Input
Amino acid sequence: MTTHSAERSYGTSVDDQSTRSNGSITAATIATRFGILLCLLFVGAVFNLVSFSSFSLSLSDAWQALVHFDNNQLSQQVIRTLRLPRLLTAMTAGAGLAVAGVLMQGLTRNPLASPSLFGIGYGAALAFTLSATGFIPLLSVIPVSVVCFLGALITGLIMFFLAGLHLSRMNPIRMVLAGVAMNFLLVSVVRGLVIFADDHAFGVYYWLIGNISNATFPDIWMAIPPILLGLVIAVFISHPLNLLSLGEERMQSLGGSLTPLRLLSGLAITLLTGASVSIAGPIGFVGLMVPHIGRRIVGHDHRILIPFSALLGAILLVYSDILARAINFPIDTPIGIVTALLGAPFFFYLASLKTRGR
Amino acid sequence: MRLMSVSIFLLLMWALLVSLSLTQGAVVLSLSDIWSVWQQGTLTEHFVLWNHRLPRMIIATLVGMSLALSGCMVQSVVRNPLASPDILGVTSAAALAVVGLLIYWPDANVHWIPFAALIGGFSAAGLLLLLTTKRLAEPSHLALIGLALGALFSAIVDYLLSKYPLEINGAMLWMTGSVWGRNWSHLPLILPWLMVLVPGAIYLCYRLDVLSLGQEKAASLGLKVTHLQVVTLLMAIALASVSVSVCGAIAFVGLVAPHIARFLMGGRHFPVIIIAMLLGAIILLAADIFARAIAPPLEFPAGIFVAMIGAPYFIFLITRYKHW
Output
C-alpha cells in the first residue's frame, strides 16, 4: 500500500514538471542546447582520437588518417585501425543504451528502470559466453550480434512478466528485486561456464564489465543497422510515450492503445541493448543516468528527449573512454568500470531521492 | 509436535548429506573406510578425512545456519519476505575489504582475510543504518538504499580488480563463495559468534512475533520498536559478515531457507528460526557436495550452485508475492 502511493506521487511529479518545462523551454533554447551538445561530442571525439596514447599522436595525424590515409605511417595506422573503431563503438553503444533506458523509464514510468538493472545486458552476455566457449555449437555459427540479440530478447521477455509490467499496477521495488535476482542468476551461470572453460576466464571477465578496447570495424557494421532501426522505432513511438506519461487510463481515453506501444518499445529495447552489448559488452548505468540528465536539460517531451538522450549517451561514453585511458595511464581500464564508478553514486542518489520524496 | 517431526526429518536428511560429504570428492571413500580410519589413524585416508572433509563439512553446516538465521532476522525487521542480507550491501562491502587487503597488503597473513571481511561488513551496516535512521519505519526503502550501496561497493571492487589483474582469480573465487580449502583454523572464526547470537535470536523471538503484528500495534503493546529493529538488524549483519568472512559471498541461502521454513512452520519465529537454520545447513552442504562431485578433480565454487537454485526460487516468490 505504501509503495502504491510512492508510484502515484512520482507520476504526479512527472506531470507537474512536464507542464512546467513545456511552458518554459522554447524551440530556440532546445536548438541551442542541441548545438552545444554537438560541439561537445565533436570536441570529445577529436580528443578521444589523439589523447592518452603510448605513441605521440597529433591533430594533423588524425586529420590525415581520416582524409587521405597513408598506410606507412604508424601514427595514422594507430588512429585508423585502433582509435577510430573504438570511438565509433563508444558512440553507437552509448546512443543505443541511453535510448533503451529512456524507453524503459517511459514505458514503466519508473525512474529506476534501465537495461543493466533489468538483467538484459547480462542476458546478452550469457548468450555471448555460450557462443564464445562453444557449449552450444549452433550458437558459435551464428554471428555474435544476432546471438546477443537473442539473449537480450529472451531475458527481456522473461523480465517483462517477472517485473510485473503486464499488471495494471506495477511496483518499482518488485521490478528492482526481480532485476537483481535475474542478474545474480545470469552472472552465476556465466561464472560457472567460465570456470568450466578456464582458459577464457580473463577475457570473459573483462568483457563482462564492458570493454571497447578491442573494437573492430566489421563488428561495428554489424551493430549499426539494428541500432538505427531501434532509434527509428523509438522516435516513431515518442508521441504515444508522451500520452502514457499521463497515466494508462488517460492515455486510453485520449485514443492511444497500450499493447502496440509495449510491443514496439520492447522490440526497440532489445534491438538497442542487444546490439550495444554485442560490440561493447554489458556497460552498466548508461541507460540509468542519461535519461535523468536529459530530462533535466530538455524536459519530458519524448519527441525531443529521445534524440537528445542518444547524443548524450554517445557523449557520455566518448568521454568515459577518455577517462578509462587516463585513470591508470599506460594501462587501459575497461570502460564499464568508469561508467559504474559514475553511475553507482547516481543510483544511490536516485534511491535516496525516492526515499525523501515521500 | 510439528516442530519435532519436521526437525527430526531434516536432521536425518542432514546426516545423509554428512555421510555423502565425507565420502564423495576427488578421493571416493566408503562408509566402512571412514570407520577403519577412525579406528587406526595411520592410513593415508586419515589425512583427507581429518584435515579436509570433516572441517569442510562442519564449516558448511555452520555457515549455512548463520546465513539462514541472518535472513530470518532481516526479513522480520524489513517485514518484506524478499529482503535478505546480500541485498543490504553487506556482502559486497565485505568483498571490497577483502579485495583491498589482497591488493594493498599482499604480505598479510591469510588469517587476516576474515577480519577484513568483518570490518567491511560492519562499516557497510553502520553506513546503511546512518543513512536510513529516519526511514526505518518504511523498511522497503532500507532495501533500496542497501541495493544502491551494494552497487557502489561492487563498482569499486571491479575497478581495483582491473587495476591489479593478478588478483582476479582468487578474488572471483572468493566473491562467488566457496567452501574449498576451509580447515580447522576457520572454525574459531564462526563458532563463538553462533554460540552468542543463536541464543540471542531465540531470546528475541517473542518480541519479533509481536513486531510482526505491525509497528503501531507492537508499540502500543509496549515494545520499543526502533530499538528492537536496530538490535535485530545488527545481529543479522554480524551473522552475515561472519559467514562471508569464512566462505565468501554466498548469496540466496539467507533468502531461501527462511522462506521454506515459514512455509513449513507458519508465522511464529521460534520454530521458523530452528527449521531455517537446519535448512540453511542442508542447502549449503548439498551445494558443496554438488560442486565437488560434478566433475571430480575440478571444483566449482559452491556459491554458483546456491545461486542457480536460489535465484529461480526467488523469482518464483516474486511472482507469487501478493502484497505489492
Summary: Chain B touches chain A through 48 residues (CB under 8 Å). The two ends of chain B are 34 Å apart (CA to CA). Chain B has a mean pLDDT of 78.
